[in-house]
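For the sake of transparency, this paper describes our internal protein records without simplification. An entry from our holdings is shown next, in its original layout:
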Amino acid sequence: MWIIELFRSATFRLAVLFALAVTAATSVIFLFIYWQVASFDVKRVDVRLVDEVAKAVSDPEDQIRRELELRLTGDLRRLDYAALFDKDGRLVYGNISVLPEGLPIDGAAHAVEALPVGVRDGATEPAIMVAGRRPDGGVVLIGRSLYEVYALRQLVVEALLLGIAPTIVLALITGVIFSLRSARRLKAINQTIMRIMQGDMNERLPTRGRMDDLNYVASAVNLMLDEIVRLLGQIKSVGDNIAHDLRTPLAIMRAQLERGLVGHSEQGLRMAAQRALIELDRALTTVTALLRISEIEFGRRRSEFVRIDLADVCANAFELYEPLAEAKSITFTLEAPAPLPYLGDFDLLVEAVANLIDNAIKFTPRGGAVCVAAKAMAGRPIIRVSDTGPGVAPNERSDIFKRFYRSEKFSHIPGTGLGLSMAATIANLHGLDLRVEDNKPGAVFEISPRQAG
């Protein structure tokens, strides 16, 4: 079974391809060396034999015999062929019985099958021979056996086989080792994924050693799982908060309507219905705000963003809330001295800034001040909404952007607890951060580009 899984492994298949590639490359190199060595040796013998025959055909017969005898006597490995034939083709001296059949007597080198003297079984062997005609009609023949050349070729072939075989085996063994290692890691990852699918959301894909391809993928999946767990927790929290926030007005409506029905006064029933409508409007406002946040989170895409002016965004939100600030005798100012270009959705950002302004005016006492500013600081566009209200306690600054969160100190002030959550959602969609700081007195809400890392 493991062998089948091994052959299914991409790592093992790559190892096999690598082994084949190494084999092909090694074969090409060896064949080139083989061809070069064999060709060079044959050409060297050809040139030497042609020169010797060209010189010998003009020498006297007795001198030729002495030279041939000296040549054959010194040939301990019996690789040389030398012979002198008369004009009738009879052997005068040498170790070749007869002129090889088909050998041209032209003073050039030719590959032939030679039959040495004393060989009775008629066995021939390959050789390079040169035959030249003497002035008296005789023939001088000098040759060289190709035994060494063929032996060298055989040696090269054996070296090729001996070199390729271990290379292939080593590549396959390496492939098996890495494949089994990868298979173990993938099996561990698969088992972890199965446990996650069965509901264990605290499991994370294993990462080992240095950051290789698998570790990068596992890390990315782990980050995704962290985000999924966070969203699931947020969904559960939202569901609980929705149930809590809707149960209260619905319970109040039911009690008021029951009270009105029990009474016998038409005026009392009318007043009960009016109070129920107020609670119903509150519930509808909560539902509408939740639907709006959901629409922002899942219905908008950054590909739809266009170039906008953040200063113009602040001016629009400022104009919208200027009458409300004036009615509450709040000093309301706008500081947007220059255009601030940014890529985003104009209407959504107006909505985000409007929620911050609404929150600031709501919590700023009569006679206080609210300032909306859009400026560039250190080359980064920043939107600030500051007020002189009660501010935000340090231990609550990370909670106020959660859905339905409302400080117990200000529970008497009307609201759904969704305005800041909606502003944070819009900012996050635009790659922006929404933070709150101390204004001494009051609070400063700042929207700025998200810091890298």
User: Anything to note?
Assistant: The chain has three domains: 1-200, 213-297, 303-449. The mean pLDDT is 77. The two ends are 46 Å apart (CA to CA).
